Amino acid sequence: MASKVSQITSAAQFDSLLKSSKVVVADFFATWCGPCKMIAPVFEKIATQLGRKDAVTFVKIDTDQQKEIASKYSIRAMPTFLLFRDGNEIDRVQGADPRKLETLVTMVALEAEMLGGSSGEGSSSGSSSGGSLWNGAALPRGYTDITHNVEVQRTELLNLDDAAAGSVRVLFAPGKPSGKSEALTASAADWVESDTDEQLMLFVPMQSLAKLHTLQITSHPTEDAARPQLIKLYSNSPHNLGFDEAEDTQATQEITIKPEDWNDQATVSIPLKFVKFQKISSLVMFVVSAEDGAEKVRLDRVRLIGEVGDKREMGKLEKIDHEHSE
């Protein structure tokens, strides 16, 4: 079987590839580097599974032979893996630790899923299978969907009804939600529901510090589960909050959602107090109550809109102290 990984032989070739392929994953290595040789089969396997012509492209760059490229992207250790979308670097992991590489794999998987469906539809459309990038509401001018910045493998959801819904990861899936009221099995559900009461506690860690402008939530109400009504947001917590802890902690912002706030895509756009969400390493979303006093609440998608800022060490959250203006 032919390799799915291309060798870069010039800066011009790499620049051209960044323009022609939607997503590029680059392995910066050296022939003398033992860890590079160790991780190479893993990278090759990922490329075989996720590579798509002119969509998701995997390349290897010899830093000794391509010093111009290595210098441009500040490569200081080998191996280093970079992920590009539309020619822009959006993530990197350094070292031959497969666990660290998993972060990049997750990103590539999401990118591949985004590219799997039709691309001719608008921002509020997409395939129900989750193939294309989808937003349930228009994006604020000057800002982008930065949900890809979520460290998905470390998200956590408290009070999840495991028997009636999917895992927390479905909330950040790039495709349009099915909107179904039931699934044959819980693993097939592309939404989440609360369990013992209407409250949910969602912990969303970031890969990079972010500026958050808008929170978009999609919720398809059913006979059993309603849309959220009262939500509290907490910024930069190093871990998920317990329900009692949240009640005793002052929220960064509190939002009451009115029935008329939901659009025809079952989505609400919540403007955030931008000055309070400037350097965000994590977000806790506490769904306090459901519409009409319902005993269960449902979430289909969560989208973060804003800007990605400085990188931080993966897996490490630091609470950031800064003044909050009212």
UniProtKB/TrEMBL annotation:
Domain spans labelled Thioredoxin: 1-113
Key words, A-Z: Disulfide bond
Cross-referenced Gene3D superfamilies: Glutaredoxin (3.40.30.10), PITH domain (2.60.120.470)
InterPro entries for this protein: Galactose-bd-like_sf, PITH_dom, PITH_dom_sf, Thioredoxin, Thioredoxin-like_sf, Thioredoxin_CS, Thioredoxin_domain
Domain PITH as annotated: residue spans: 135-324
Pfam families in alphabetical order: PITH, Thioredoxin
Family stated for the protein in its record: Belongs to the thioredoxin family.
NCBIfam families the UniProt entry points to: thioredoxin
Protein name per Swiss-Prot or TrEMBL: Thioredoxin-like protein 1
